[in-house]
Design a protein that fits this description.
By secondary structure, the chain is an alpha/beta fold. The chain is built from eleven helices and ten strands. The chain has a five-stranded mixed beta sheet with strand order 3-2-1-4-5, with helices on both faces. The chain has a five-stranded mixed beta sheet with strand order 8-7-6-9-10, with helices on both faces. Helix 4 packs across helix 10, helix 5 packs parallel to helix 7 and helix 8 runs parallel beside helix 9. The two termini are 22 Å apart.
Length: 343
């Protein structure tokens, strides 16, 4: 296997990882969270600017940690999409520059594929499998019948689950990002607030979180107007029970219908302790093997991009230097992309 340098810059983490023969030598992450906290969410222009400032420093640190020289790299991999268009451009231009300078292949990687393949740091993927992809920008159920073969069977019709967590946290006065404080407080609370379950009774794998978010916001505002004290822990528990319940119920339905051998969690929300616990319980009931990514690999990082790139390198899926980013790139279009003139 090759020595691969991977770059991830799709949102607010500048990350570079280096792998050799499948072994992770370095995975350096520079997070911008503290810069975006005051806004309650990621500001795209600031994110792009910080990527420009940080990427050369992150590259230097990754090479030092891996004790590898750029001349030893066999291929440069980079997140092509989806993500913030300006942020993606920073990573791509860095990868292109290095690939041109050292005359090595350029490997385009799908960001969500990276989250799915992060599970290979824990175990071997076996097919058919169901990937439950949950993050700040995505909520999808993906069936894989073989490596790098993705079929979306369900997605969110509006907000992603991670985005919903952030907005609920904001109205409750909790810090950004909202997933960690809500998950922590939910353990102390009880589901005493009645919240609607989205798309209940509908025969679909799709999910919806916008109505749930709006219901929490309206309920909090109504309580404040009446001068009633908000039991924050109870609200967090009530909200999380419903939000996670939507994901778990759809996943259980897919496991039964598609008779999958394995289930993998992917994305930032896969770090949620309640989601992990509930998915383990349901998979055990159904006799399905479940892989949960290591906590260090749940948020955006380049190690997951490198893991996908290892498979693409073996298949010689290399891109031309006129490759562009795609901020709305669908993982389902990956198979067509591999055989298209875009490479």
């Amino acid at each position: 296997m090759a020595t691969i340098l991977a770059i991830e810059s799709s949102c607010d983490e500048t990350s570079i990882a280096i792998t050799r023969e499948g072994k992770l030598l370095a995975n350096v992450i520079n997070s911008q969270v503290e810069f975006h906290q005051k806004y309650g969410g990621v500001m795209p222009e600031i994110a792009s600017r910080l990527h420009c400032e940080n990427i050369s420093l992150v590259l230097k640190e990754a090479l030092e940690k891996a004790d590898v020289k750029l001349e030893e790299i066999d291929a440069f991999a980079v997140t092509r999409g989806p993500g913030l268009i300006g942020a993606l451009h920073v990573g791509l231009q860095c990868a292109k520059t290095l690939a041109l300078l050292y005359q090595k292949p350029l490997i385009p990687v799908h960001h969500l594929a990276g989250h799915i393949y992060a599970n290979e740091y824990n175990d071997v993927l076996s097919f058919p499998l169901l990937a439950v992809v949950v993050s700040g920008g995505n909520s999808e159920l993906v069936i894989m019948k073989s490596h790098l073969d993705f079929e979306i069977i369900g997605g969110t019709r509006d907000d992603a689950i991670g985005e919903c967590y952030d907005k609920v946290a904001r109205v409750l006065g909790l810090p950004y990002p909202g997933g960690v404080p809500i998950d922590r407080l939910a353990k102390e609370g009880k589901p005493t607030y009645h919240l609607p379950r989205p798309l209940i009774g509908q025969d679909t794998y799709d999910m919806s979180f916008s109505g749930l978010k709006t219901n929490v916001i309206n309920l909090v505002h109504n309580l404040e107007q009446r001068g009633e004290q908000i039991r924050v822990a109870d609200m967090c528990r009530s909200f999380q029970d419903v939000a996670v319940g939507v994901v778990v119920s759809r996943a259980v339905k897919a496991i039964k219908q598609y008779k999958v051998k394995q289930v993998v969690l992917a994305g930032g929300v896969s770090a949620n302790s309640y989601l992990r616990e509930q998915m383990k319980i349901e998979c055990q009931k159904l006799g399905a093997n479940i892989i949960i990514p290591p906590m260090w690999c749940c948020t955006d990082n380049a190690a997951m991009i490198a893991k996908v790139a290892e498979h693409l390198y073996e298949r010689k899926v290399f891109a031309n230097m006129d490759l562009g980013v795609d901020s709305n790139w669908s993982i389902e279009n990956w198979n067509d992309f591999q055989n298209s003139s875009d490479l």
